[in-house]
Design brief:
Blueprint: E1 7-16, E2 19-29, E3 33-38, E4 41-46, E5 50-55
Antiparallel strand pairs: 1-2, 1-5, 2-3, 3-4
């Protein structure tokens, strides 16, 4: 995956763990789910629940 390892922010349609926005390191895609590491925890977000995704620029 081209952007694996990059920092991303996801805006969710339906909150997960009472959070509508997630920021973390992108791991990749697997079975229609976005895999990322948020605060040291592996998370999997269904693609249908992603409203917007943005890369965080590294300076």
């Amino acid at each position: 995956m081209r952007f694996a390892g990059e920092q991303v922010t996801l805006k969710l349609r339906v909150p997960m763990d009472n959070r509508r926005r997630l920021s973390g390191q992108l791991v990749g895609l697997e079975n229609d789910a976005v895999k990322l590491i948020v605060d040291g925890t592996d998370m999997s977000v269904d693609l249908r629940n992603v409203d917007a995704a943005r890369l965080k620029p590294t300076v």
